[in-house]
Amino acid sequence: MEKRVSRRIIIGATALIAVAIIAQLLFHLNVYLEKRSNHEKVLSLINENLMFRWETMDEDLENINNWIDRGHFYNEDLGRLYERASLIYMQKGEILPYYRYLGYALYYLERSPEKDYTINVYLDLANFFLNNYADDSAKKMIDDALKIKDFEDIENLQVKSYAFRMLGIMAILDEEYESAEEYLEKAQDVLDQSNTGIFEDSYRAIDDAWLGRVYVEMGRFEECQEKLDKWEGHPMFNQDIYREILLRDFIIPYYQVKCMCQTGMIYEGRGDMAYRDMVDKESKVGAIYKAFVDICEANGYKKTELYTLLRLQKKYPPKGAEAQEQMFNNLQRLYDELFAEQNSTYAYVIDGTVLNSMQEMDKYEQQEKFFVRRRRSIALAVITAIVLFAAVTIFILNSRVDGLTGLLNRKTLNRAIERAKKLDSHYGIIMMDIDHFKNVNDTYGHQNGDAVLSRLGEIILTESNLDIHCYRYGGEEFAILLDKRSVSYAENIAERIRSAMELERWDFDKGLVITISAGVAYGSREADVLHQADENLYKSKESGRNRITVSSV
User: Fold this and answer.
1) Beta bridge partners of 429
2) Where do the structural domains in the chain lie, given as residue ranges?
3) Distances from the Cα of 222 to the Cαs of 233, 287, 378, in angstroms?
4) Are 487 and 427 in contact (CB under 8 A)?
């Protein structure tokens, strides 16, 4: 009897286990079949439905997000869907979601066997950094792409052409114009192998615009003009589809090169030119530049406008008083506007957004894995929770400190100022900026530039105590926040730091003197002390640098 009962129990348990195994197999089979089906649908969406229409953009975006939330996909398909959604965000002019979704795409593509699309996302990020003149960040993105696969081995012809174009643009910025010409011609050779009828014309136009830039820099103005004439009046200048991408990659570079080319043709051989003839030519150049400025201003490309003006000023410095005044006024206006918008930190914001989106995806995947393995022991769950808690704690602590200087970062300063305002406390701020720091980087390299930043951080940190808090504000700017007990010492502290920096001697150039300018301001309640300190710093810069300006709010 007992044997029968035991046998029935064993048979029943075996049957239950078999049912569970079959259920799991059926579940995984269903997931596999759904992934296969969705793979075909994603390919259809990516390869066939390429055009964006304003009237359906929001609906398309909602459908993609709902599809992602509810379906099962291969990693490469999820990456492509997120990339597709990012392009819709860019077309809508929503830049931060665009780069957040690029981060999502990169997260999944890096975990897939599809390497060409992964490279494409890195190229998009490099392209963004180049358009914000963050050349080092752009180079890092291209280096990361090259680690995935040599560009010669890319199978997707669109991505391969894009990759060689980006190498050409980087070579232009490095003033290696012969290499740039080779890369850009290689990009066009790749296009000759493709016949989809979808992207080839726009890519040829973009390549020609950058080849025109190469010709301008090499003084081959007639060849440049041929490239410009080839695309003059093309419908791409006015089409709504992919408008933001075309502006970034083709329209603005085209008009930039046109401005440079026409200017170069006017000024060619001006060394023997009479002063009156020179003034007449400068008037014509002013009109050309004005047309370029109007396009940049209308589309938000002030950095390109400033970069172009500085290039023209360096290559063809104006001789006439009117042209000199116009040049100065334009430069001053652009510096003021870009400073006010704090565009110098924009690339870092985007870089952080992409990183955070990848971390968000990692957290989401960890949560999914937790639910799949929820039957594991409580002990393992507790250990995992402790590890995650420690990681988050370390992340939060590290996020308060600047890695190079050891000072607190800008986000921490903003929070401290908000606390001071809420407490209705009297406080002071010292804003400091290294004078002519760009020259240090350009002359001695970024490694020595970092050494200067690190040393200034050490000098500033010697002033730190319970009432005095030191921060790196961004780039070569630093800040000190003083509580009410230390406000009266602010000017003395600023002077000690200024004097110590002026006396510092540098291993890479014993005779080099590096100075700082500072602005000091005091106030309380809702007074914008930070803004006043910044204004005082600007006054110190304007009145000769290596000095301190003080005021209260």
Assistant:
1) 481, 521
2) 346-398, 410-552
3) 19, 21, 75
4) yes
Identify any residues that bridge with 520 across adjacent strands, giving them in sequence order: 430, 550
Contact 129, 138 (CB under 8 A): yes
Asked if the model's pLDDT at residue 141 lies above 70, the reply is yes
Q: Strand 516-523 vs strand 548-552: parallel, antiparallel, or unpaired?
A: parallel
CA end-to-end span of the chain, whole Å?
96
**Dihedral of the CA atoms 233, 234, 240, 241 (nearest 10)?**
-170
Q: Which residues of 89-102 are buried (b: 16+ CB within 10 A; e: fewer)?
A: bbbbebbebbbbbb
Give the DSSP letter of residue 113: S
pTM: 0.54
Residue (of 485, 454, 473) closest to 518 by Cα position: 473
Torsion 294-299-300-304 (CA) sign: negative
Q: What is the pLDDT of residues 305-353, one digit of tens each?
A: 788 778 877 777 776 666 667 767 766 776 666 666 654 455 545 555 5
| Mean pLDDT within 400-404 | 87
**Contact of 468 with 480, CB cutoff 8 Å:** yes
CA 283/CA 119 separation, integer angstroms: 46
Q: Give the integer Cα–Cα distance in Å for 320 and 22.
A: 87
User: Which residue type occupies 158?
Assistant: Q
DSSP secondary structure code for residue 485 in this structure: T
Q: In the prediction, which pLDDT does 246 show?
A: 83
Pairing mode of beta strands 427-434, 477-482:
antiparallel
Residue 478 phi, psi dihedral angles, 5° rounding = -130, 160
Burial track 123-148 (b if 16+ CB lie within 10 A, e otherwise): bbbbbbbbbbbbeebbbbbbebbeeb
How sure is the predictor about 197, in pLDDT bands with cuts at 50, 70 and 90?
Answer: confident
The helix/strand/coil state of 93 is: coil
Backbone angles phi, psi at 71, to 5 degrees: -105, 170
Q: Which helix (H) or strand (E) holds 522?
A: strand 516-523
Element (H, E) at 484: none
Residue 232: how many other CB atoms lie within 10 Å:
10
HEC per residue, 233-283: CCHHHCCCCCHHHHHHHHHHHHHHHHHHHHHHHHHCCHHHCCHHHHHHHHH
Confidence of residue 2 (pLDDT cuts 50, 70, 90): very low
Domain at 410-552, CATH class: alpha beta
Is residue 123 within 8 A of residue 106, CB to CB? The reply is no
Bridge partners (DSSP) listed for residue 427:
523
3-state percent helix, strand, coil for the chain, nearest multiple of 5: 75, 5, 20
Picking from 71, 93, 97, the residue whose alpha carbon sits closest to that of residue 83 is: 97
